Write a sequence for this structure.
């Protein structure tokens, strides 16, 4: 591929990486990772609520990696309540998984920026070492994509397997018991998925620029020719 087209592809990949870094940084700071509704089972059982009456006992919850908000509905109107994970909820949540999610988000942002720098370096500079050249670009893209996948896997397990929403809803509750009524991942979670897909796309752009994948085995015609020459 001609050099100008390679520069365009590398610049495009660098721009994608920069957008991903900004998106991931914005996603980490928001509380739009999970949205759902919580049912006050104690209040609903006391009045034997059903049908339209049950809506008076369904509140809302949304949270991110650091803070969130829930609206407590027990038949007497909504009561909003703000909460933060550090240090309030550390005793009731799987802290190791939650900290790992934050750690991998940080690694994702850092390596995305590193990848952006090396894409631009390959576009306008003269790379001379392995990690500065195409192999390095594959490496940064692979690490960033893997971090994004790990973030989604760990956070999904924290929410679904460890019932994070219910634990938050029942935090400091002594009279009423809450149960998750509905739950879905919100915008910030899908931003991380989009970042992972973009890093995979960057790897395809590197291949489109004419560079083989690191573990591919090109045909070594020189060895076969040399062996044939020794026979004569």
């Amino acid at each position: 591929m001609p050099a100008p087209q390679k520069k365009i592809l590398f610049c495009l990949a660098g721009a994608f990486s920069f957008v991903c870094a900004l998106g991931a940084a914005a996603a980490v700071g928001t509380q739009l990772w999970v949205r759902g509704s919580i049912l006050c089972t104690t209040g609903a059982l006391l009045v034997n609520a059903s049908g339209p009456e049950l809506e008076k006992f369904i509140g809302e919850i949304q949270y991110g990696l650091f803070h969130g908000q829930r609206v407590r509905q027990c038949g007497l109107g909504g009561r909003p309540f703000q909460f933060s994970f550090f240090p309030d909820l550390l005793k009731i949540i799987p802290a190791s998984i939650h900290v790992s999610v934050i750690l991998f988000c940080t690694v994702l942002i850092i390596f995305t920026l590193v990848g952006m720098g090396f894409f631009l370096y390959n576009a306008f500079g003269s790379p001379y070492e392995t990690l500065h050249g195409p192999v390095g670009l594959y490496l940064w893209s692979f690490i960033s994509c893997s971090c994004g996948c790990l973030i989604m896997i760990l956070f999904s397990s924290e929410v679904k397997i460890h019932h994070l929403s219910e634990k938050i809803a029942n935090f400091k509750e002594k009279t009423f018991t809450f149960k998750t009524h509905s739950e879905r991942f919100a915008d910030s979670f899908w931003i991380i998925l989009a970042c992972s897909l973009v890093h995979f796309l960057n790897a395809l752009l590197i291949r489109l620029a004419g560079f083989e994948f690191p573990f591919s085995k090109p045909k070594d015609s020189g060895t076969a020719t040399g062996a044939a020459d020794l026979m004569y």
User: Anything to note?
Assistant: The two ends are 38 Å apart (CA to CA). The longest helix spans residues 95-124. The beta strands are 34-40, 58-63, 67-73, 78-84, 178-185. The chain has one domain: 3-213.
